[in-house]
């Protein structure tokens, strides 16, 4: 089923997943869907695989959002935002207030879309060689470090990625990237896919309410990837999360 055939999910969070192996990324040419600015950024990337993956991810984003807005992908417009802040759709094209966020890691990218609410998504490929202890010491709050310390040795890497994806998804939902002091913010999440995420200690000055979940990824990704999504919602709010695949054939 292509994106154009799917009905927008107006009562939950829709996730679209793109897979582009490096061998295919190097063959991606410049695409007519890209704006002049996007094309310039693509051409500035010296690595062919990185350039192809970036181009494909822009086409991916424009195709999904264009279907929601009933617009050709090349005509989707975005509001100008300060560097480091997440992009948003142009208001004059978006009366239904669709909001989105994109994350990528390894050979995958995931796009989260929801109506009328801020949303953040983070996808991470788990790497055993990562210095997760050092990252936790500088970027995790005391409560997050305590949760990591309490985990069994064989589960520590898993717990680290559940916490990290939840934390980054929250920062991205707020629209500030990782610009605020990381250690001053705390999230809590269970160590299983599908676990609920709570923002225990928000970014200073943030008075919004949030709900999140560790994403249940397709079986092919579960051994190597973790993801989390956060949306603005009341404490009692619960949202369905659907995961759909996107391929270049959909554009």
Which characteristics define this entry?
28% helix; single chain; disordered N terminus; Ribosomal Protein L22, Chain A; globular; alpha+beta; 9 strands; 5-stranded antiparallel β-sheet; 251 residues
Topology:
Layout: E1 12-19, H1 22-25, H2 36-43, H3 48-69, E2 98-105, E3 108-115, E4 119-125, H4 132-139, H5 142-150, H6 156-174, E5 186-189, E6 196-201, E7 210-214, E8 225-232, E9 240-246
Parallel strand pairs: 1-9
Antiparallel strand pairs: 1-3, 2-3, 4-8, 5-6, 6-7, 7-8
Order of helices and strands: EHHHEEEHHHEEEEE
- The CATH topology name of the largest domain reads Ribosomal Protein L22, Chain A
Structural class determined from secondary elements: alpha+beta
Using DSSP, what is the number of strands?
Answer: 9
Count of helical regions = 6
Major pleated sheet: 5 strands, antiparallel
Shape: globular
CATH class of the largest domain: Alpha Beta
N/C terminus separation: 12 Å
* Estimated helix fraction: 25-40%
